[in-house]
Each structure stands twice: as structure tokens, then as C-alpha cells.
Design a protein that fits this description.
- With 489 residues, this protein is mostly helical.
- It has 3 domains: 1-127, HUPs (Rossmann fold, 3-Layer(aba) Sandwich), CATH 3.40.50; 130-167 and 209-295, Serine Threonine Protein Phosphatase 5, Tetratricopeptide repeat (Alpha Horseshoe), CATH 1.25.40.80; 306-481, DNA Cyclobutane Dipyrimidine Photolyase, subunit A, domain 3 (Orthogonal Bundle), CATH 1.10.579.10.
- The chain has helices at 17-25, 37-40, 47-66, 79-90, 103-118, 148-161, 169-173, 180-183, 208-219, 228-231, 244-249, 254-265, 270-295, 317-325, 331-343, 348-361, 366-376, 382-392, 408-415, 420-425, 445-451, 466-481, and strands at residues 2-7, 28-35, 71-75, 94-98, 122-126.
- Strands 3-2-1-4-5 form a 5-stranded parallel β-sheet, sandwiched between helices.
- α4 (79-90) runs parallel beside α5, α15 crosses α16 and α17 packs antiparallel against α18.
- It starts with a strand and ends in an 8-residue tail after the last helix.
- Bound molecules: flavin-adenine dinucleotide.
- Residues 232, 240-244, 247-248, 282-283, 285-286, 289, 348, 351-352, 355, 373, 377, 379-381, 384-385, 387-389, 392 line the site of flavin-adenine dinucleotide.
């Protein structure tokens, strides 16, 4: 039997469940990707994410061609139509794919499955982008978890009892790849300009090989994982794995990452074990938010906590524009936003600070921030982005309490103590002494004069007074969330 593996957020050969299953069930396998021009032209996809995917497609095609096969790149707003035509052309009888919990993908997949089955094709879907399916980690009474720590405990128990190890899909499929001559006409790898995306060489380029190298370096002896817990909050240290765009496009499998983390949990040095545990926890946060999206899909366009729908957000386009442009007058927030818009990625601590500033200091609806991040992140992922925003806005499951408002000055002092990160992103503050770098408007005139920075001209004055803004936020949240039980709906 010939089969098609329909790739979507799993652009790799190894540790790919659908590919493994297809290889086991078939004599020949053809890998396909369907470009959806409507999606690419929609507001939901930004240049960094699109470019990340295009680069991963190019790398995968190159690998398949080196193996004598090809990646069938098709284009259609209806993937089922493109896949059915491919199946007819190559004589395939089955389509395999991996599930995606994004509600719009769930809808598309249900429609495509029905249409493909109507064409007499066998269709099989698998859990791949998470270790455990959303329904596998439940409370004793069968209800989904709403709080991370017990979810994580159960996740770990389950993994230790029955680990989900990486699947050897590459080995299984190598000899079964359909020859390129049999695949025939498919389109070129999409290019940024074709869909109106402005390219930037700083946006990450992805490939399976690169992802594996990053993971290997990060988890090797002496790699970043050994200090992760101590350094992960320091943006200047650049001490996190940077695997997020790879996990998003699937140039690495989550089981491979988890297995490597588990290897380091057995390290003889207790410090390494502790740090590896922290990194593993982050991978489980990723699973938790995927579970939340699948089990509580209403989070896609509304708060997890129903009462939070009544928060009176401000309509403040000028403040939103200042935040987006990195011109709030708070250096750690501005540096964060500049990192995002110049590189397509933002450090996790900064995502929390920037999101807290928008939703609390500016009291602007988290959905505007979520959409902005979605368009600028190379790792933009509905589950993690929504989870992160609702966490910061105190509207989500297991979120930060509403009265905890990050202070952008002390956050800067704590996590960028010498202003190294801020100066790297905001060269206009380069000569500001360390003491004032997170609050430049407090510089006495003689200091400002000697470092040559005119606050209000060279760099903006703060657009809000943090202390007043904090009180305003608490005043807006308290009547709504003061009585609400978090996690209930
Ligand atoms: C407001 C906000 C928005 C976010 N939006 C996204 C997003 O769109 N896509 C995304 O992948 N992550 C998002 N995150 C989570 C986190 O910031 C990034 O995953 C992380 O910064 C990626 O860097 P890294 O790969 O070096 O992570 P590492 O620190 O090395 O962590 C390893 C992996 O664990 C996962 N992970 C880490 N932290 C989290 C978390 N808090 N939630 C979920 N998964 C996590 C990621 O897949 C990450 O690659 C968001 C966080 C916040 C606060």
C-alpha cells in the first residue's frame, strides 16, 4: 500500500508518530504539506512564524531529495482537495497525520477526514505534539486539571510508570520513501515575499538537524541545562534552550526533548539534577497549556475564569502603540518589545513583564497583546501564547493573582542588574549609569548631562506612573475577581 503523511506542525523525519505508523503500515510513503494561502494572508500569521515554517520546509525537502524522494508541497485552501488529488495521482490509499489542538485545526481536520474517507481513503490521526494526549492526564474523578502542580505530579507519575519514548520513524521510513519521479508536480517552497512578509535575517531559520544540535548542546555535560534553574530568568545570559520555534514547527519531537531531560535527572551531581528538573517542568507547562486549550477551548476568545469577562479594559490606542513600539519609558518593557520586533523572539521573563505591563499598568485587554505576540513570535503557538497572556492578565487557570502587579523597575533591577540587556536593545541608554538604567527619568540633571541622555527627547518619559497604574489596575480587577474563585467557570 502507498500512503500519504500529511505534515503540519511536525516538519521532521525522526520521532514522528504519524510517519512511524505510516511506515509500519505501508510499502511506500509520500510526505506532503499543504500551503493554505488564505491562512498565510490572514492576521493570524506573522513573518517570523511563516519564515520559520518555510525554512523548515526547505530543509525537509532537501533531506528528502538527498534520499531520492521529495516533499510534495501542495497549495489549496482546502487541504482535503489537494490531498485527494495527490492520492489519486500517486495511487495512495491512506492518509496519516498528527493531531493539532488549535480549535480551527480541529475543525479543519474533522472536515478533511470526512472528505478523504468519502474518497475511500483510510485516514488515521495520532497524538504527537504532546507526550500525553489532553485526555490522558485527568483528576481521579475524570475532570481535567485546572492547576499546574497536581497536573505535573500526575504527568510525572504516569511518565515514570510508562514513558513515551521517541519513535524511530526515520529508520522505519528510510527505505519506504516514495521515489521523487513517482511524486511528480508540486510547488516550490513558499517564499516570504510571495505572501507579503517582510524578511529579516534575524528571524530564526529551522531544520531538524539544527534542532537536534541545539538540544544536544543544551543537554550535554556542561550544557545550559546544568545551570538552567539559576540563569533562565536573566535575559542577558541567553541561557534558555531556544527550542521553542523548533517545538512549534516540529523540527524536533517533544518525546526526544523529554527523554534527554530525563537522562540528566540521573546525573550524579545534585545541582544538575535540580536544574534539569526545572527545564523538564517547562516542557510540562507546555503540555499543560495544550491540555487547557483542548479541554477548555473557550480560552481561545475569552477568559478561562468566566468572571474576568467583566473587567473594564481601557480603550487606549496611543498607549497600545507606545507599548508595541517599545516606547513606554520603562526600559525593561521597551527592551523586551524591541527584542520581539527585531528578532521575532522574546525571553520568557520579558514576556511576563511585557504582558503584565500591558494588562495591569495600561489596563489594556490581554487579547490585543496576545494578537500582537502572535504576529511577531517565531514560536507563536495558540496554547502557550494564550496560556501566558491569561496567566499574566490573571484571567487564566492557575494565573498570577490579580493584585500581584509586576513592578517594571524592580523586575529590571532584579533580572538585568547591570542593564546589559537593556543597553543591548536600547542603545540610546548606553551611557546611563547602572543605578539609573531601569528608571532613567530619576537621573539628576548633572548625571543626565554628563551621560548625554535627555529623557523626554532621546528616550521617552514613562507613559504612566507605575504606582498609580497599579492602584488603578487593582481597582478595576477587585470588584470582578475579588470574589471569583480562580480556576472555576
Ligand atoms: C505572555 C506569554 C506568551 C508566550 N507565548 C508563547 C508562544 O507563543 N509560544 C511558545 O512556545 N511559548 C510561549 N510562551 C512561553 C515561553 O515564554 C517560551 O516557550 C520560551 O520563552 C521559549 O524559549 P526557550 O525555547 O528558550 O525555552 P526554555 O526555557 O528552554 O523551555 C523549553 C521549552 O519549554 C516550553 N516552555 C517553556 N516555558 C513555557 C511556558 N511558560 N509555557 C509553555 N511552554 C513553555 C517551550 O516549548 C520551550 O521551548 C509565552 C509566555 C508568556 C508569558
Amino acid at each position: 500500500m502507498r500512503s500519504i503523511v500529511w505534515l503540519r506542525r511536525d516538519l521532521r523525519l525522526d520521532d514522528n508518530v504519524a510517519l512511524f505508523k505510516a511506515a509500519c503500515a505501508s510499502e511506500e510513503v509520500c510526505l506532503a504539506f499543504v500551503v493554505d494561502p488564505a491562512l498565510l494572508r490572514s492576521q493570524r500569521i506573522g513573518a517570523p512564524l511563516a519564515i520559520a515554517f518555510f525554512s523548515a520546509l526547505a530543509a525537509l525537502r532537501e533531506r528528502l531529495r538527498a534520499l531520492g524522494s521529495d516533499l510534495a508541497i501542495l497549495e489549496d485552501e482546502l487541504p482535503e482537495r489537494a490531498l485527494a488529488a495527490l492520492a489519486e495521482r500517486i495511487g495512495a490509499r491512506a492518509v496519516f497525520f498528527n493531531l493539532d489542538y488549535d480549535p480551527s485545526a480541529v475543525q479543519r481536520d474533522a472536515r478533511a477526514t470526512e472528505a478523504l474517507r468519502a474518497e475511500n481513503l483510510h485516514v488515521s490521526a495520532f497524538v504527537d505534539h504532546v507526550v500525553f494526549a489532553a485526555e490522558e492526564i485527568d483528576q481521579n474523578d475524570g475532570r481535567p486539571y485546572r492547576v499546574f502542580t497536581p497536573y505535573k505530579r500526575r504527568w510525572l507519575d504516569r511518565y515514570r510508570f510508562a514513558p513515551r519514548l521517541p519513535v524511530a520513524s526515520e529508520r522505519a521510513v528510510r527505505r519506504k520513501l516514495l521515489r521523487s519521479e513517482a511524486i511528480g508536480g508540486s510547488r516550490a517552497v513558499p517564499q516570504a515575499r510571495e505572501f507579503g512578509f517582510a524578511d529579516n535575517p534575524r528571524f530564526p531559520r529551522l531544520s531538524e538537524r539544527r534542532a537536534l544540535q541545539i538540544l544536544t548542546d543544551f543537554t550535554a555535560e556542561g550544557g545550559g541545562i546544568a545551570r538552567y534553574g539559576e540563569t533562565r530568568d536573566l535575559p542577558a545570559a541567553d541561557a534558555t534552550s531556544r527550542l521553542s520555534p523548533h517545538l512549534r514547527a516540529g523540527t524536533i519531537g517533544i518525546r526526544t526533548c523529554v527523554a534527554r531531560a530525563f537522562c540528566r535527572l540521573g546525573d550524579p551531581a545534585s545541582g544538575v539534577r535540580r536544574n534539569a528538573e526545572v527545564w523538564l517542568s517547562e516542557l510540562i507547562w507546555r503540555e499543560f497549556y495544550q491540555m487547557v486549550l483542548r479541554r477548555f477551548p473557550h480560552v481561545t476568545d475569552g477568559p478561562f475564569v468566566a468572571a474576568a469577562a467583566d473587567i473594564a479594559w481601557r480603550d487606549a490606542p496611543e498607549d497600545f502603540a507606545a507599548w508595541s513600539a517599545g516606547r513606554t519609558g520603562y526600559p525593561i518593557v521597551d527592551a523586551a518589545m524591541r527584542q520581539l520586533t527585531t528578532s521575532g523572539w522574546m525571553h520568557n521573563r520579558l514576556r511576563m513583564i511585557a504582558a503584565s505591563f500591558l494588562t495591569k499598568d495600561l489596563l489594556i485587554d490581554w487579547r490585543s497583546g496576545e494578537r500582537f505576540f502572535e504576529r511577531w513570535l517565531c514560536d507563536a503557538d495558540l496554547a502557550a501564547n494564550n496560556g501566558g497572556w491569561q496567566w499574566a492578565a490573571s484571567t487564566g487557570t492557575d494565573a498570577v493573582p490579580y493584585f500581584r502587579v509586576f513592578n517594571p523597575i524592580t523586575q529590571g533591577e532584579r533580572f538585568d542588574p547591570h542593564g546589559r540587556f537593556v543597553r543591548a536593545m536600547l542603545p540610546e541608554l548606553d551611557r546611563v549609569p547602572d543605578r539609573f538604567v531601569h528608571a532613567p527619568w530619576t537621573m539628576p540633571p548633572d548625571v543626565a548631562h554628563s551621560c548625554g541622555v535627555r529623557v523626554g527627547t532621546d528616550y521617552p518619559l514613562p507613559i504612566v506612573d507605575h504606582q498609580l497604574a497599579r492602584l488603578r489596575a487593582i481597582g478595576a480587577y477587585a470588584p470582578v475577581l475579588g470574589r471569583a474563585t480562580h480556576g472555576s467557570r
